[in-house]
TrEMBL record:
GO terms for cellular component: endomembrane system; membrane. One of its GO terms (molecular function) is NADH dehydrogenase (ubiquinone) activity. It is found in: Endomembrane system; Membrane. NCBIfam families: NDH_I_L, PRK06590.1. This is NADH-quinone oxidoreductase subunit L. It comes from Bacteroides finegoldii.
Amino acid sequence: MELTILILLLPFFSFLLLGIGGKWMSHRTAGAIGTLVLGAVAVLSYVTAFQYFSAPRLEDGTFATLIPYNFTWLPFTETLHFDLGILLDPISVMMLIVISTVSLMVHIYSFGYMKGEIGFQRYYAFLSLFTMSMLGLVVATNIFQMYLFWELVGVSSYLLIGFYYTKPAAISASKKAFIVTRFADLGFLIGILIYGYYGGTFGFTPDTVSLVSGGAAMLPLALGLMFVGGAGKSAMFPLHIWLPDAMEGPTPVSALIHAATMVVAGVYLVARMFPLFIEYAPNTLHMVAWVGAITAFYAASVACVQSDIKRVLAFSTISQIGFMMVALGVCTSMNPHEGGLGYMASMFHLFTHAMFKALLFLGAGSIIHAVHSNEMSAMGGLRKYMPITHWTFLIACLAIAGIPPFSGFFSKDEILAACFQYSSVMGWVMTVIAAMTAFYMFRLYYGIFWGKENKELHAHHTPHESPLAMTFPLMFLAAVTCGAGFIPFGHFISSNGESYSIHLDPSVAITSVVIAIISIAIATWMYKNAKQPVADSLAQQFKGLHKAAYHRFYIDEIYQFITHKIIFRCISTPIAWWDRHVVDGFFDFLAWATNATSDEIRGLQSGQVQQYAYVFLCGALALILLLVL
């Protein structure tokens, strides 16, 4: 495992090389350097995973936790110190595979998609920084190191979302993402400090915790504040507002952010701190479940009416991340047979979702590359022009809808089984949301590849299939999506000596598949044909609801009202007036009074000897008269 350090160093050096010397390189050279480096990182990640999972297990049946590198950066006490290192365990090794695979596909895909773009070298430099930041986050040996790389992920996303810095929309979106996630990260930082003080450690496991007086009562608060940071990064309601606008960045960036890096960081945080949640804050964990369920339902509702294909996928990501949070939140034990099924289900869905969501976003990029528009009104009938994109996109839609034998079926079935194990209410809520997922994804599919063809637009620019640099990642990810469900994932994720066995709950699986097929049939009936009278009639009949969902239920407008009308106008403006007129006025008065007084008395220091003698004589006479009288 000595070479694992190169998994972080290689993309970092690539960032430095392309960032500093990229302007003297051709596009082909810069892209080749970035892609070859990521290829090497992917190979190292696969080798690390093979060596790790093929090593003998411990006596209790679990995989060992390895720390190939670790050194103390800032010591405070014997147990409390800031360390930097690399930690390898089942979920961190799994994340190395996910991040390196998706990032490599994005690098290859960008050769075709970003061809001829101004700032091509800068784009690849930012991709390398983003990948390095996320890799450093998942192999962190402690929560403080995770926070350092967490903030680097935020900086990287700001740079990539605002890549087209001449576009006002991209500038606004990058600032929005940065500011919203910084507010959430403030909660994360406070939680880390509380945890470090009362827990006496920055470690991830309960056996490293050394509670001070009252620490048991404070750890739920600390873990809850850490979840606030995860909720911001993973776009949980109501901190989701930055993610749809992040679509202003290049489409390959959207695939990287939504599939393998930024948005899954919050899920990974909760999974990494999972033993502590179970031990000290089980009620907080259940709060995580309901936040995830609300987020999943809200995002699915909005996705059902969006017309921008990237925004449909953005809200789909928010909804699917909600599924992962729910799976973690419904756990009541570390033991898979005693309520711990959701932990494995969440990690399994994170893995499968990364592959088919990257496929969906890269497929959307291929479509946008062909028609030069994000709107479904510019599409329709594209299946005959773009066969590879069509079939790979269909595979991803079937996977996310939960249709067997595609990977999404297996992971989503595990989540639903865990939800029903927790409570029937949660199980049926998530089943309904899964049905909504199938509906809006096939509404998107039919709107793009079937439906009414925009012949007027196509007459000026005939759509065509993307080049091999773009279609190869689509075919590769489609193959992974078809086969990932058959990976014995539970074999690799184990805890307390108990393996998480993947098994199909027949009642849950059959019910979810039947409901998904019904949802797909409804979407087919409503959207497959060129004319869509049923959809138009429903949109007109429920005009207010449709408009509200299209405008994201006005959450952004509510934020604007609260910030501009209440905080800025009613709080900030009066405070600014008081600062300018009272505080500044008082100190301006002191300065004026000092100047005016000095003007009046400066004659006393005139430098004229005769005047000094005259004043001295008058003073002496005054003292004599005072003494005499």
